[in-house]
Design brief:
The chain has a four-stranded antiparallel β-sheet with strand order 1-2-3-4, with no helix packed on it. It starts with 5 loop residues before the first strand and ends with a helix. The chain is α+β, with helices and mostly antiparallel strands and 77 residues long. A hairpin with an 8-residue loop joins strand 3 and strand 4. The chain is built from two helices and four strands; from the N terminus they run ββββαα. It has one domain. The relative contact order is 0.21.
């Protein structure tokens, strides 16, 4: 569990598969996702570098306006 304050969770599903990114004040990112129909509800702590550019674009597009500048800055680290 992360002790830092959560900023926002952004959902960018891939078809029927869950694909959520939770951003924290300390710059950490929790990725909750389904790998496939049989491997669901997985969790990984990731860095911005591990997110593909296309996925970053989807995250920014889905991000609520009030968090967009902060999340964009975190993804550029």
């Amino acid at each position: 569990m992360n002790g830092s304050k959560e900023i926002v969770t952004i959902s960018v599903p891939k078809g029927d598969l869950e694909n959520d990114y939770t951003f924290f004040e300390d710059g950490k990112i929790r990725h909750n996702y389904d790998q496939n129909e049989n491997k669901r509800d997985l969790e990984a702590w990731i860095t911005p570098r591990s997110i593909a550019d296309g996925d970053k674009d989807k995250i920014i597009k889905a991000c609520p306006l009030q968090f967009k500048a902060k999340i964009t800055a975190l993804l550029k680290k």
